[in-house]
Amino acid sequence: MAKRKRNVDEEENKPFKLPKFNVEKFLKRERRNIRVTFWSSIFGILMALICFGFWALMGPESALRWPLVLLVAVIDAVFLRSIFNWRKIDLTDFVRKNWFSSYAIYFFTWLVIFIVLVNPPIYDDESPTVQLVVLPESQEFGGTVEIIAKITDNAGVEKSGITLTIDGTIVDSSEYTFEDNIFKYVYEDDALNNETTIKFTLKVKDINGRETVLPEKSFTFSNSIINVPAPLYATTPPGPEVGSAIDIKIKVNADVTRVYYTIDDGALINVTKPEGSEYYVTEPKYKGWSAGKNVTMKVYAEKIYSFDIVSDKQPSQMSEKELLDYQEKIRSNTFNNTIVDTQTYYFRVADESGVGIEEPPTVSTPTIKVVQVPGFEALILVLALVAMVLIFKYRKKDKR
């Protein structure tokens, strides 16, 4: 037992000797790794050029071209071993982590070069994206119609590349505006007195000549977009008598966001449409109506439209400055126009206690849709997490 203890003590007391550093072996391995990195990158660049050719040949109409080129890039990674053998690279001590590094260098080189190749200024096969709205599509005589389009393109669109044609006549570019991707043209014709339908087309060409032509659209001018079918009204004062419980029905022959009217050019009262009804309905019970008086009613219908907003964050996740910029973006992407009824309506209000005592209804405006896209921060975070997992995995393996 004592002899065994003595042997153990002797082993513990032996001085520690550093293993001899093999400089030649180290240099050989590092030169090999440099060659592996170089040829992995070269192969990635070559495959990016080949995939770019496939991408261009398939054209923008193919929905499968991105999955197909990705599949080609992944499958062709198996040729890395053949390339290393062709270049007579010694792979005798090549382990799993070396192969992982080689494939990663190849793939990310391919991805970066391929993305550069398929985007401007090198290549552009995407036509401009045009979102168009007409505010409103039906208007009363004397009113205006706004043609508004949000135009986006990966290469860029200039004002000279936009062509608006109305009833066969090309509109001069000085008559419309194009700022911050928003095209706007206001049509008005005070001479119209018969129902008229105006047709127009919009053509957009980007700086590389890619073109988007929208289908023909139209808008209408008429004298019957808004009318009040009940109760009987007068076109001159004092008009028929209405009580607090009398329904005043308003018909609007257009797609609008809200309907409202004014009393004696003062109070503004919103009108709601009961479910299943074709009429908007109001009553003299709302504040603004005055008992025992003659009133003049003017009816309006407003169309509000907001283009979708692209953001990498929801409003609740934004800082104060980001929220201010977001609110400004909402304002710059929201547009409205109003239909003004050409007819004026006169009523005589009954002297009743129920007149003008209730608050008018409120009307909610459309909610702007936020299209959330992942930011580069999320992609970097995912890649960093994957790298950390792999590093810890191989460090643990090396320790064993």
Instruction: Write the element-wise H/E pattern from the N-terminal end onward.
Output: HHHHHEEEEEEEEEEEEEEEEEEHEEEH
Low-pLDDT runs of 5+ residues are 373-377
Output the number of helix runs: 7
Strand content: 25-35%
User: How would a textbook summarize the main sheet?
Assistant: 6 strands, mixed
What is the approximate shape?
elongated
Number of strands: 21
Instruction: Give the mean pLDDT.
Output: 85
Can you summarize this structure?
The chain is α+β, with helices and mostly antiparallel strands and 400 residues long. The chain is built from seven helices and 21 strands.
3D architecture notes:
- With 400 residues, the protein is of the alpha+beta class.
- It folds into three domains: 22-118, no CATH class; 129-222, Immunoglobulins (Immunoglobulin-like), CATH 2.60.40; 226-374, no CATH class.
- It has seven helices and 21 strands.
- The protein has helices at 2-13, 23-58, 65-75, 79-86, 96-117, 320-332, 376-399; strands at residues 129-135, 138-140, 144-152, 162-166, 169-170, 176-179, 182-188, 196-205, 211-213, 217-222, 226-230, 241-242, 248-252, 258-263, 267-271, 280-282, 294-306, 309-311, 334-340, 345-349, 370-372.
- The strands form five sheets. Strands 2, 4, 5, 8, 9 and 10 form a six-stranded mixed β-sheet that branches. Strands 12, 14, 15, 17, 19 and 20 form a six-stranded mixed β-sheet that branches.
- Strand 14 (258-263) and strand 15 (267-271) form a beta hairpin.
- Helix 2 (23-58) packs antiparallel against helix 3 and helix 2 packs parallel to helix 5 (96-117).
- The longest helix is centred in the first third of the chain and has 36 residues, at 23-58.
- The radius of gyration is 36 Å and the shape is elongated.
- Mean pLDDT is 85; it is low at 373-377.
